[in-house]
Write a structure and sequence with these properties.
82 residues; globular; alpha+beta; 48% helix
């Protein structure tokens, strides 16, 4: 399977699984703990995370902007960190 096809399938699966707006904890739950909520918090502090919104003190992500951030980070090669 080509990388483009595999990436498209992953993104489409996440598009169907993620709610329109969600928290870091939801990312961790839906992605099988591939991306930890604390990793997203650290990336946010470094200004390398997905665009975020706030609901009170809770960080929230919009599905399409999160997926747009995630897609170029997907790789078939080992060792490429988020």
């Amino acid at each position: 399977m080509s990388k483009v096809l595999a990436t498209d399938l992953i993104i489409e699966s996440l598009r169907n699984s993620l709610p329109p707006v969600f928290s870091r904890k939801v990312v961790q739950e839906i992605m099988g703990q591939i991306i930890n909520a604390r990793t997203l918090a650290n990336l946010d502090c470094q200004k390398k995370g997905p665009p975020r919104k706030y609901l009170s003190k809770t960080v929230m992500y919009e599905r399409e902007t999160f997926l747009a951030w995630l897609e170029p980070k997907l790789s078939d090669e080992e060792g490429n960190a988020l």
